[in-house]
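User: quick one, sequence for these tokens?
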């Protein structure tokens, strides 16, 4: 998958760790932001300049800013699945507790000691905890 296809699948947001896995160096990532085509939203994510600001993009930013194996959770996760009585904001994101985790800037963070892969799914282009975990 190339950079543009990845961004399109994630509401125009891409995480630095995803860019690195595509083979981009830190200098190449810096060049993307200096070119004006991409905007650094946080140290962990960049987004396409001029992309539509949507609730899906905001949710995607929060999840990708949290790092690998993260997803919308709690009230935000329930709202993402369109369950009645729940609001998306304030955004809640769950990620596996890890001593090397970077601070999250765009949501309230929850860090359980156990977060199996099958407790995360992708819904509407954003990683989210499965309803049974919510």
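Assistant:
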């Amino acid at each position: 998958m190339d950079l543009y296809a990845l961004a399109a699948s994630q509401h125009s947001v891409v995480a630095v760790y995803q860019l690195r896995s595509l083979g981009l160096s830190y200098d190449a990532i810096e060049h993307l932001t200096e070119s004006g085509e991409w905007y650094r939203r946080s140290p962990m994510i960049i987004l396409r300049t001029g992309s539509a600001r949507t609730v899906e993009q905001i949710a995607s930013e929060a999840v990708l800013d949290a790092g690998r194996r993260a997803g919308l959770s709690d009230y935000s996760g329930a709202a993402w699945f369109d369950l009645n009585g729940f609001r998306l904001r304030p955004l809640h994101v769950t990620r596996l507790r890890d001593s090397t985790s970077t601070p999250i800037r765009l949501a309230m963070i929850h860090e359980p000691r156990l977060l199996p892969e099958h407790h995360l799914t992708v819904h509407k282009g954003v990683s989210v905890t499965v309803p049974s975990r919510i």
